[in-house]
Design a protein that fits this description.
By secondary structure, the chain is an alpha/beta fold. 22% of the residues lie in helices and 34% in strands. α5 runs parallel beside α6.
């Protein structure tokens, strides 16, 4: 993996794309070239002198040719609320790429990606990579409402088959959580004689735990991307530890992607 660099990143766009959801496009050519699917950046947000800690964000999309990266973020507190006011005339400082990327087995010719909410962002570069490697990719997306399925059109444009979608309120796709769709996909793949060789999931922790258990029941290798509050982002402060079968590990450098079998839920 590439050693993290510190890079000033100029904001090119910062627009609302859904309820409490924003898409920020940044010019950061070094990170755009070196980022691997599943890795993240640590952002220093300007004009936040009273909140000095950086914020971790996964990379949603990138253009190596244009030196651009995209961050899909949700407004959940003071820092992310402050970010919504940043304009194209400003810049932020990024450290990245950081962390362990997705590592699908080389022999996995058929894969299943499962995302809840903004968990769709850390999986999109993985979907692009798997398709470039001529692997079959199926996707399950879940969100609270149709408006919150902000990544659906991007996945639809990439995939041969549209993603299976669920919404809590039934405004699009299956009404309810996305876990029944995951179970259905696993069962159908087995009945077709073409079981999945890899499953990747990102989203709320209860969702990841349930999906990881399903993958284990069907003997499918599974990875999860765990979100933790991070202070340093380089493994020094131990604020983002994850309990695993081999002891405590740091989400920022030992993760954020972990083998689901190692996580102690």
């Amino acid at each position: 993996m590439t050693k993290p660099i510190s890079e000033p990143a100029f904001i090119r766009a910062n627009e609302p794309v859904g309820p409490g959801l924003y898409l920020m496009t940044l010019e950061a050519s070094g990170i755009a070239r070196s980022i691997e699917p599943g890795q993240f950046v640590h952002m220093r947000i300007p004009a936040m002198d009273d909140h000095i800690l950086r914020r971790p964000f996964s990379i949603y999309g990138r253009s190596v040719e244009n030196g651009l990266v995209e961050i899909l973020y949700q407004v959940v507190g003071f820092g992310s609320e402050h970010m919504t006011a940043l304009s194209a005339s400003q810049s932020v400082e990024l450290i990245g790429p950081i962390g362990r990327p997705w590592r699908p087995p080389a022999a996995a010719s058929r894969t299943l990606l499962v995302a809840g909410g903004v968990g769709s962002a850390p999986l999109f570069l993985l979907a692009e990579k798997l398709i470039a490697e001529k692997r079959e990719v199926d996707v399950v997306l879940g969100a609270q409402t149709a408006e919150a399925l902000v990544s659906r059109s991007r996945y639809e444009a990439l995939l041969q088959e549209p993603p299976r979608c669920s919404t809590d309120d039934g405004s699009f796709g299956f009404e309810g959580f996305c876990t029944p769709l995951v179970k259905k996909a696993l069962v159908e793949a087995e009945s077709e004689g073409r079981p999945y060789g890899y499953l990747a999931v990102c989203g709320p922790e209860p969702l990841m735990r349930l999906v990881a258990n399903m993958a284990a029941e069907h003997d499918v290798p599974c990875e999860v991307s765990l979100e933790r509050r991070m202070a340093c982002g380089i493994g020094a402060c131990l604020s983002c530890v994850v309990k695993t079968t081999s002891g405590l590990k740091r989400s920022c450098v030992d993760g954020p992607v972990f083998d689901a079998r190692e996580v102690v839920w």
